[in-house]
Amino acid sequence: RLTKEEALTLPDKMPDEVIHVKLASRGARDYREMARHSAIEALDTLAGNPLTRSLRLRTICSGYVDTDDGERVEYSCGKPAALRTLLDGTDEKVVVYCNFTHSIERVQALCEDMGLPYVTLDGRQQDKGVWRRFQDDPKVRVFIGQYQSANAGIDLFASRIMVFYEPPLSSVLLEQSRDRIHRIGQHRACAYYFLLTDNSIERAIYKALQSYADFDEQFFDQYLKEVR
What we know:
Elements: H1 4-7, E1 17-21, H2 25-37, E2 39-40, E3 45-46, H3 50-61, E4 64-66, E5 72-74, H4 79-88, E6 94-98, H5 101-114, E7 118-121, H6 131-136, E8 142-146, H7 147-150, E9 161-164, H8 171-178, E10 191-197, H9 201-210, H10 217-227
Parallel strand pairs: 1-10, 6-8, 6-9, 7-8, 9-10
Antiparallel strand pairs: 2-3, 4-5
Helix pairs in contact: 2-3, 4-5
């Protein structure tokens, strides 16, 4: 661990650290079927358009998929374990960003299991100023945010550590989210961790974001050509 004095000698934004996670066999199998055939035969589920196909691939990377009949199928996913390791390895405050409500609920359950007080700001949160508890209360260890709800207008510089549970599709959302901890008042080097599923669409999304590009339909089409 770095002391505050040591961190002051580091760049204000440290290079991204990518943490590679894996899907268990069933999830990997269903992912391949959806990527190659736009369907998961065993679940009788078809992606009728590119947007649905992309969404289902992304959710499988985070350990679940919603089928055509409304059932939610869960997969064994390495992201909760990777996040646990990060949280267990520091006594500092940590910011976690998620795309999906189900992912937020998984992170909440993990924090509860670890006994870590947290606050959440997403589309369901009525108190939009809940982030101030994270800023002001030393007992609140984790902030869980959804990109669209917590990407602007809030200060989270009580933390210098940000974890992206899954990457967004928008480079603007990503950079605005990054800046929540890189604000006036921040005196420590900011560290950014990305939990990315191996051999998946998340790697292609991250590659586009590194070029400050949005992962749009053109990028998605190119990704599908590469996995066939």
